[in-house]
Design goal:
Length: 173
Amino acid sequence: MNEHLKLVRAFHESSNLPQAEHGNPKRLSDMDIILRQALLMDAGSKTLTALKAGDMVAILAGLAELAYYALGAIAMQGKDVIEEPVLWRHDGFVLSVMQLLSDKINRCSAGEVEHYSEVYCLCAHLAKNFINADFDKALRMLHKNNMARLNEGLKSRPEKLPKTPDLSECLFE
């Protein structure tokens, strides 16, 4: 099982969020798909706003949140991440990043694991190859923050992650 997915599954378990047993897949309900799409779109909006501002730390935070939400949808279905190759190379234009992120998020409206996996894989790829950051460390820091904040009222609204921690130490430059 993907290591980042294990973290998200632990978060779901700790916060009593529904998830299928790993290896015993189930489909998402229409309402689950709608909620997951709203979460992805919100994190995508934050990422694109950070992209416009050129704020690398905020871009990384947005990518980490996007990946975390995508992994959450995979955990709910009891499946594993499908490692998808990312067909994007840095072309010098941020517009291509926006188009690719928007397209991948939009595809998740079908509720399929492969589309959520595409979002996760794209976030990892962009963190490493676009903003030169340690994606693994960023996602682990986000997870640690989420777990630490569970007792601070998050259980009443577990679908909404707490404020993202400062991920500046995850940037290589």
